[in-house]
Design goal:
The protein is mainly alpha-helical and 111 residues long. The chain is 77% helix and 0% strand. The chain folds into two domains: 44 residues, no CATH class; 61 residues, no CATH class. Helix 3 packs across helix 4. The two termini are 22 Å apart.
C-alpha cells in the first residue's frame, strides 16, 4: 500500500484532534494524564516544544534584524525607537500570521 504524506498527516491530525477534544478543560486534561499515564507523561513533548520555541525565536530575531537593516538603508529612518518598534512589530506580525496560517492548514488537513 502506498500512502502520501498528506494521507499520513491527515490521519495523525484526526487522531490528535480527537484526543485533544476529549478533555473538558485544561485542568481535566492535566489530571487525566497524571492519573492515566503518570507524572512523567505530563512533560511529554517538552523538548519538542522547547526546540520549536528556539527556532521561532531565531526566526523572529533574524527577521527583525533584516527589516531594521532595510529600514535604515532606505534613508527614511534613522536608528531611533520608531525604527526598532516598526522592525519588532513587523517580525511579530509576520510570525503571528504564519502561525495562524499553519493552524488553518493543519485543521483543514484534519477534516
Amino acid at each position: 500500500m502506498n500512502f502520501s504524506n498528506e494521507d499520513v498527516l491527515s490521519n495523525l491530525c484526526k487522531q490528535m484532534f480527537c484526543d485533544i477534544n476529549s478533555y473538558k478543560n485544561a485542568i481535566d486534561g492535566v489530571m487525566r494524564v497524571y492519573r492515566e499515564e503518570g507524572f512523567r507523561r505530563l512533560f511529554a513533548g517538552a523538548s519538542t516544544a522547547s526546540t520549536r520555541a528556539i527556532f521561532v525565536t531565531i526566526g523572529q530575531i533574524s527577521f527583525y534584524e533584516q527589516v531594521k537593516v532595510i529600514l535604515l538603508a532606505s534613508g527614511y529612518f534613522s536608528d531611533n525607537p520608531l525604527t526598532h518598534f516598526l522592525s519588532s512589530f513587523t517580525a511579530v506580525r509576520k510570525f503571528f500570521i504564519h502561525q495562524l496560517l499553519f493552524v488553518i492548514v493543519l485543521k483543514s488537513w484534519c477534516l
